Amino acid sequence: MDTKRVIRAKKGLELECKGWEQEAALRMLYNNLDPDVAEKPEDLVVYGGIGKAARNWESFDAIVHTLRRLENDETMLVQSGKPVAVFKTHAAAPRVLLSNSVIVPKWANWDHFHELDQKGLMMYGQMTAGSWIYIGTQGILQGTYETFAEVARQHFGGSLKGTLTLTAGLGGMGGAQPLAVTMNGGVCLAVEADPERIKKRIYTAYCDKMTSSLDEAVEWAMEAKKKGEALSIGVVGNAASLHHELLKRNIHIDIVTDQTSAHDPINGYIPENLTLEAAAELRKTHPKEYEKQASKSMAKQVEAMLEFQRRGAVVFDYGNNIRQIAKDEGVSNAFDFPGFVPAYIRPLFCEGKGPFRWAALSGDPEDIYRTDALIKELFPENKPLLRWIDMAQEKVAFQGIPSRICWLGYGERMKMGLAINDLVRSGELKAPIVIGRDHLDCGSVASPNRETEAMKDGSDAVGDWAILNALINVAAGGSWISVHHGGGVGMGYSLHAGMVAVADGTGLAEERLRRVLTTDPGMGIVRHADAGYDKAIEAAKEKGLDIPMIHHAKG
Hints:
Largest sheet: 9 strands, mixed
CATH class of the domain at 138-338: Alpha Beta
């Protein structure tokens, strides 16, 4: 491990590669590992436990070297963070194809993954870590904001004002929760075992206050709740203990969720009653014992969440597989509270909506502000979207390369992508724009305990859709396309695909953007129409999607 290396996001107009697509991949790889962006860049870890950008430093250097020499009609293949081949393809083909953490199903578990990892044969790519399109906590912020907005609409009259949300985990993903809650007017109490994680969220303005005292945290929270003020508090502690202590004190909690890295019991969750130092030592010397203790602590946390639900709180799983771990530990009713996708997000997926993101390769925030204005010009009737853009401008601190995220649907993504390409062509934007998304999207993931939980037709575990998404996006000409396993919920529980396209202002980019920004969200409508969702069937007919057996879909 090389702990001295510091990688910084590269900005500006000077290229070190032979084309902007290769340059974009290189810069987004650097961006993933910028200390302002990544959680543990010295270990190549971007977010989500051990979600990495490259297998090791030797592989990182080889990727960088290969991208610098890659021709405009060549494609580099990356196998779990290691460049393994370059082939002559054509100018409209992807410049990079990546496959991360994909294990044959019978062996798709953490034990076998760790064996491969220790032999240097594999890395965990999470979702946007190994596919080089992580943009810091903003990347999940709007999705988290939309989730809490839907919670507010369904349960609290449209606002979280006067409510208290209890959650845990302030890593790269979970760190979005405090700001998402306060953006909706509520109070957030977030438990985090690592004080450095809380400090990072305070520094980037995602969290307002920090304390190691539960008494102080509760006092602040209840005072803000009583006054109807928005406030977020990070409290240092272990959720397995603190949740039960809050129950013991009869503190009234309105909403409970969790975004610890529970998907990875060894690297993502600190067992109860262990200091960070003791946890690190146990993880190193006795990983199996560590896993056992972490799983027991997760079960205890889920038991507390179930008790909050019994007492009237709105409780939901935020996609980290903590319910499954608890069930495996003997909590038979762990799935009594729902996952966030079936509860709050699936109707958006049926319309082909999902987390569209873009990054300004110039490094100039003004390029992002121009695209913010573009959103308002293109979609003036979408009031929630305009409100989001205003709030993002006011409250979101850029991490690394300036970027923006907003949820757009079928037709909207293509419209935005082509308009961005026009602005690059005209020179209104100083450099090309990278357009991508999370793997958590409408048509790119199979994850029975998260995105595809409780599908109408029982197709929760059908993995074909994620593979088809990647295949059609390669055919459509994305700039780099990825297929991953295990993101979000851990080994054995998900398959998912990523898509990135570069708007460099050229005519070829326009053709490719037109195709890939249609096929990608189109797969979301197709997948949900095939499962029999009326909203998706209607959207498919309205948008003119060609689904040969749509009349067989049971709406």
